[in-house]
Amino acid sequence: MKKILVVGAGGQIGSELVPYLRGIYGESNVVATDINCNSCTKLAEGGPFEELDALDGKRYAEIVRKYNIDAIYNLVALLSATGEKNPQLAWNINMGALMNSLEIARENSCSVFTPSSIGAFGPSTPADNTPQDTVMRPSTIYGVCKVTGEMLSDYYFTRFGVDTRSVRFPGIISNVTLPGGGTTDYAVEIYYGAIKDKKFTCPLPQGTYLDMMYMPDALQAAVKLMEADPSRLKHRNSFNVTAMSFDPEKIYATIKRRIPEFTMSYDVEPVKKAIADSWPNYMNDSCAREEWDWNPQWNLETMTDDMLKVIGEKHAKGLI
Ligand code: AKB
Question: What's the CA-to-centroid distance between 184 and ligand 1, angstroms?
Answer without folding.
Answer: 6
